Amino acid sequence: MDKEWMSKDRLSHEFDVGVESFLQFALKNAIHSDAIPCPCARCGNLWKKNVETIRAHLYCNGMDLTYHTWIWHGERSTKGNSMNDNDRVRQDEHKSFNEKPIDMVHCVYESYAENPSQFNKLLEDADKPLYPGCAKFTKLSAVVKLFNLKAKYSWSDKSFTDLLILFGEMLPDHNELPSSVYDAKKSLRALGMDYVKIHACPNDCILYRTEYEDFANCPTCGTSRWKLGNESKVKEGIPAKVLWYFPPIPRFQRMFRNKAISKELTWHADKRIRDGYLRHPADSPSWKLVDRMWPDFAYEPRNLRLAISAYGINPHSLMSSAYSCWPTTG
To answer: Count of domains in the chain?
Structure first.
């Protein structure tokens, strides 16, 4: 028992010495002694405090365990600080993952529990050679790879259909390549990559869903939900504006069902370098703010944090793009 108390006293003494050593170092390099970044586990160098407050925070909250090099208090960082061979930035951090067609099908197996015949059709496409004797591509893998290129280079549906027709003529007879973008999309929908069309007010007031689902006119501006034809005649059943919604949950499930991608989703907690540099979004003040405000959420590294990108927005139709892309919540 005496040895246990001696050990606790020694650790307490070492902590006291460490806190005072840090405060002396921080004061020595501070421009203003009453405004020093607080390195406690809650503040994470985001908020500036006076020395007494920082001392109290360190005793109550402890030091931020990721703060090894005191770069916010005058210490210079070197390339070797807080790094070991296992923590080096990996060269393949942003590598792409080429999922095998059969693996993609297995990922959506549970979605077809009540429709096994449709799953068997999907399984057949994953195994069927692109053309007789083809060992490199199946019908499903060819469609997926071509759609990746379509998305990467922003090909229009018309150009993609023309490309499919041309490829179909180049390939041997009895090939399985779809002849239109519509037929190609049916395979991707079966993989859980479908979208939902939601009618919208032409003036962007509301979406016709939930309590507005059966409305024919916008309750805010009174504009008709339906498209106007010749002589301003309403074409009932044809929406004036449509929002294409891509459900995120099925896509998240697919990501976690892929062994390689699931490891990358928790890389920020398992293998991230912690040396005070901004190397990853997890090093940013915004990420740390979420950690402090919702510690239960931050405790589970598999929880996903979504960022809204404004790329593609066409405010007031001033850009040459024929469509607009707006982030929505629901």
So the answer is: 3
Last residue of a domain, one of 190, 211, 236: 190
User: Token pair 């405010």 is at which residue?
Assistant: 315
| 244/154 Cα distance (integer angstroms) | 17
Mean pLDDT over the full length of the chain = 77
Q: Is residue 314 part of a domain?
A: no
Residue type, 4: E
Mean pLDDT score, 289-305: 89
What is 93-149 written as a DSSP string? TT------HHHHHHHTGGGGTT-HHHHHHHHHHHHSBSSTT--S-BHHHHHHHHHHH
Give the 3-state secondary structure percentages of the chain, helix then strand then coil, rounded to 5: 45, 10, 45
Greatest pairwise CA separation for the chain in angstroms = 96
Spatial separation of the C-alpha atoms in residues 295 and 49, rounded to whole Å: 22
| Phi, psi (rounded to 5 degrees) for 190 | -65, -20
Of the three residues 156, 172, 190, the one that is the final residue of a domain is 190
Q: Does residue 102 register a pLDDT over 90?
A: no
Tens digits of residue pLDDT in 124-144: 777 788 999 988 888 888 888
